[in-house]
């Protein structure tokens, strides 16, 4: 056996070679079994060579876990590898590139980044890629560059997937007229990312509400009682040419297991930005606070 580190039995070294061979042959479960056998039969005592040897075995077992999609198990092994050290080396400390310690540490950072990426923990993935870069003193490594690109791509795709997922939304329009009218109920969908939190992101929510109203405004304007479906101005009762929308938004009802709801207090106005329009906006600003204050979960715009 070449370069046999003192303190390690030849039979154990052979087991490691066997496991590596199985891994190369893509017999990952078998490789995993042999790596585990070595680790299970080794104590925690031993000289630095023994410790270093076991770090490598554990890091290789993590690679087998990764190949099998066991990312959580791999994380556990890799964190163990990175927190264990032989004398003179602590986590993150420098070591001659190419030394067994440096090689195992480098590979472990990269494997850990890969695991976190697969687990959707992109910040953790980037953190370990940065740790890798520090460890090699900023030297460019193709494996690191490839992984960075993968993290970026997967993160983008994850964001798109979240955006695409939607849940049903009740959109209730209460049109203000001198003679009360029944609310108009519309059924829409809302991105999951806006409703699965107790505190909906404000900008995204406002953009969503703006799109919602733009989508239905022209149609709503033609659902009134006058000829051509016009409404009466809420204030002067002339023919309305536009609608002022004020929202009470209950997007986060979803968190309590209820259907998210947006209530639109719609005031038909004779002239946009005319007196009745301005009065509508002023009044709603005051009214909305009264209507909504009792509830904890609310948002208006
Ligand atoms: Zn008017």
Automatic annotation (TrEMBL):
Entry keyword Methyltransferase: yes
InterPro entries: SET-MYND_domain_protein (IPR052097), TPR-like_helical_dom_sf (IPR011990)
GO molecular function: histone deacetylase binding; methyltransferase activity
GO biological process terms held by the UniProt record: methylation
Superkingdom per UniProt: Eukaryota
The UniProt record lists the keyword Methyltransferase: yes
Cellular component, GO, one term: nucleus
SUPFAM superfamilies named in the record: TPR-like
Keyword set, alphabetical order: Methyltransferase, S-adenosyl-L-methionine, Transferase
UniProt name for this protein: Uncharacterized protein
Gene source species: Cyclocybe aegerita (Black poplar mushroom)
